[in-house]
Amino acid sequence: MDKKIAIVTWYTNGNHGGTLQAYALQKIVNSFGYNAEFINYCPHRKCIKYKIKRFLKDLIIYSVKPKVAKTRKAIYQFVKNELDVSKAYYL
């Protein structure tokens, strides 16, 4: 496939619905003969303040709701195995 399409969306939003919607979009675009790839855009990932805040928030959520950790791990594994994702782009 020579034709490429870049998709910018939030495909790891912590719930199965958003991730499956992204997967379906990629499959549909691919069925039209394009090579669809998700852009791994990380605007806040470089900021140390964001990383600390995210870590503390996850620590609290995981200690109170351990099922959330299991769900997020499954989503991240699905993304790794099923979605075509670009390298990370930071701003």
What attributes characterize this protein structure?
alpha/beta, 3 helices, 91 residues
Helix content: 40-55%
* Strand neighbour order, sheet with most strands: 1-2-3
Give Rg in angstroms: 15 Å
What letter string, H or E per element, gives the SSE order? EHEHHE
Number of helical segments?
Answer: 3
Largest sheet at a glance? 3 strands, parallel
| Category by helix and strand content | alpha/beta
Query: How far is the first residue's CA from the last residue's CA?
Result: 30 Å
Description:
The protein is of the alpha/beta class. The chain is built from 3 helices and 3 strands, in the order βαβααβ. It has helices at residues 16-31, 48-64, 66-82, and strands spanning 4-7, 35-42, 85-90. Strand 1, helix 1 and strand 2 form a beta-alpha-beta unit. It is flat, with a radius of gyration of 15 Å.
Q: Which secondary structure elements does this structure contain, and how are they paired or packed?
A:
Layout: E1 4-7, H1 16-31, E2 35-42, H2 48-64, H3 66-82, E3 85-90
Parallel strand pairs: 1-2, 2-3
